[in-house]
Amino acid sequence: MRPWVRRSLALVSATLLSPLLAVHAADAESSTWADGAGDMWKVDEDDGDEWRPAPGHRNGDVIKVKVAHRSRAVLIRQSFVELGRSGRRHVLVGRIRTDSGLTRTFDITANRKDWDGEMIFAKRNGRRDRCGATHTLDYFADSATIRVPRRCLNGPEWVQVKLANAHFGREIWADNAQGPGQAFFRTWSDEVPRG
Ligand SMILES: [Ca+2]
Ligand SMILES: [Ca+2]
Question: Which of the residues 4, 87, 121, 186 could staple to 178 if both were Cys, CB 3.0 to 4.6 A apart?
Answer without folding.
Answer: 186
